[in-house]
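FW: tagging you since you asked about this chain on Friday. Here's the raw sequence from the shared folder, copied in full. Didn't touch anything.
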Amino acid sequence: MHAGYLARPFEALHLAESVLEGPYRLSPRVRALFLVRKARAQAQGRDDAALVTFREAMSLYGDGVGPSDPPWAWWVDERELWWHEAMCRSDLGDVAGALNAFERSADAVPDGETRSKFIHRANLARAQVRARSWDQARDTLAHLQPLALQVASGRTGAVVTSTIEALRKHGSAAPAGVLCQAVALSDTMADEFGAM
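HL: got it, structure written out here
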């Protein structure tokens, strides 16, 4: 995960494959986790095989929880997997596919999970800006506004910052309403957390 976050896909791929091909007795769910990491690394390396690897991970996930799954694997759910699919598709340049997966991921977050809602909606906003889905981006940025008052996340702040920078690069192509909403969100985050 860390190697992928630092944009070192070959290191991430090597680490994932060393576990997947090693002498370990992985439960299906843990194997799915490492397949997701492999898929993410492949996608960062622009290898279309990432989607095949990802489908294999989803198939294992679909088998359900087994008695050999460790307790720490509790967080693996569909929204998390859809988010990883979206990231893979984004890295591979599939703007429409990434947007669809980010929408599924964001919609699957329960209302009470404020931090997750903020993270997933921030990524959705970035995908909407990339796809030039201006009305949807404006609405998502508006949903992020109250969440930004409750959640301090450097990583998510970086996603919001990159989204706002992308909007500024679009210049006059982006409607004024989207830009205004982005500026309001940026101001809120700067006031609350000094994030921007």
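FW: The chain has a mean pLDDT of 87.
HL: agreed, and The chain is about 70% helix and 0% strand.
FW: great, closing this out.
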